[in-house]
Amino acid sequence: MNISVSSLMESFEDLFPKETSFAVSDAKRFIYYKPSNKIDLQIRPGDKIKENTVTFKALTIQQKISEHINSNVFGIPYYGTSVPILHDGTPQGCVTAILSSAQLRFLADFLTVRIEDSWKPIPHKDIMFLEAQHRKTWVQSNRGMGTNKFNLSELEYILPADLFIRCHRSYIVNVNYIAEIQPDSHSTFLLIMKDGTKVPVSQTYAKHFRKILAF
Fold first, then answer.
1. How far apart, in Å, are the Cα atoms of 104 and each of 99, 101, 108, 157, 174?
2. Which one-letter DSSP state was computed for residue 212?
3. How far apart are CA 84 and CA 196, in angstroms?
4. In this model, does residue 76 exceed pLDDT 50?
5. Which residue range(s) make up the domain with 183?
6. What CATH code is carried by the domain that includes residue 194?
7. pLDDT of 186-204, one tens digit each?
């Protein structure tokens, strides 16, 4: 099957917040770029990947990274999330999603959660896990359980990568609330959270999960 980078990226766009710019690179240069109406870093296919960009850093450390980059690199500040593409442990390329600094309001250190008939700002550190169920996103926290308007794919982009990890198509967990990791079946795990909840780690996410938690 021959699929172009542009058609592949178009299928991914709904997974990210609106007005996101996208860049795709190989190991050394950008090969695709689509700016949004909010931010344009003036990247051109063929441009060499600059140091101090999130793309360069993701390729270097060989794992997902989210970071605010100042204006010294592209002339304007931006917030980027880069995910490296690896083959046999070697980086082959990278996909980067880019937001403008004005859009960083979505990246505050809390989520607003509807609990019963009111809305409560819940700090990230107090969120145990998030679950997609019945077309709603449920947030379990120290302050109760409620719903958030974003889906898990959007929240995976928004939430800080040093605290939260996607472990299943229906779950994102805060690593600080994992009490125990148990083998479940071949290449899968079961998380016992500190509140006693059991959260599965699916085979799709198991390899990345093990790499992030280093076991």
1. 7, 5, 7, 12, 21
2. H
3. 34
4. yes
5. 108-213
6. 2.40.50.40
7. 779 999 999 999 999 999 8
